[in-house]
Amino acid sequence: MSIGQVPWNKGKRGKFSDAALEKLRQAATGRPAWNKGVSDNLTHKRCSKCGVDQPIDNFYRKKKGAPLRVPQCKTCQKKLNDEWRASEHGREMIRKQFRERYKNKTDEYIEKATRRALQKPAETKAAGRARYALKIGLIKQKPCERCGNEKAEKHHPDYEQPLKVEFLCRSCHMKEHLRR
Ligand SMILES: [Zn+2]
Ligand SMILES: [Zn+2]
Ligand SMILES: [Zn+2]
Question: Is the full-model pTM beyond 0.85?
């Protein structure tokens, strides 16, 4: 296949589409992009992030079973993943994935929530009011009051006082409930 036959992507950026580029690469090398110019017998590789020469098994494969490894070592890759997850874009992507995954499970969710509400009416009522109070700014989200973890849930020492809320992370919250 020649370049002339590659479909031009008339998108906003006026570039080749990924699919078209992939076809070009395959036409040029006879191999898919992720397998381009890589030998299977590499034993060491230098990490593009930390620059340390390391055994090849410290690098994730680009695809399952593919010889090509990612440029960063596993430690650096994990760090990159964490950064991505914390970034605005990453969080939006994760939210999107979550919505996609649970789109069809609404009935199950409603059932579960209903069951919970019936089992623990006082807790559910207080939680709902606290959620609303947080939404309209009556109470402010805080980090865990025991350990400082940024991710904290609302805990009610007294369900009769829905606006009296303690912020506890998951693990401190569990401990608090086990204690009682
Ligand atoms: Zn590294
Ligand atoms: Zn905590
Ligand atoms: Zn609680």
Answer: no
Number of residues written out for the chain: 180
Phi, psi of 169 (to 5 degrees): -70, 170
Per-residue HEC secondary structure of 34-48 comes to: HHCCCCCCCCEEECC
Residue 127 burial class via C-beta count within 10 angstroms: exposed 0-12, middle 13-18, buried 19 and up: buried
Looking at the CA of 74, which ligand is closest?
1
For the chain, the domains span 1-37, 120-180
Q: From the CA of 121, how far away is ligand 2's center (Å)?
A: 26
Neighbouring residues of 63: CB distance < 8 A, sequence distance ≥ 6: 34
What distance in angstroms lies between residue 143's CA and the mean position of ligand 3's atoms? Answer: 15
DSSP-derived secondary structure letter, 8? P
Contacts (Cβ under 8 Å, ≥6 apart) of 60: 69, 70, 74, 77
Q: With 50 as the cut, is the pLDDT of residue 9 above it?
A: no
Ligand sitting nearest the alpha carbon of 172: 2
Q: What distance in angstroms lies between residue 48's CA and the mean position of ligand 1's atoms?
A: 7
pLDDT digits (tens, 9 = 90+) for 105-127: 777 777 888 898 899 999 999 99
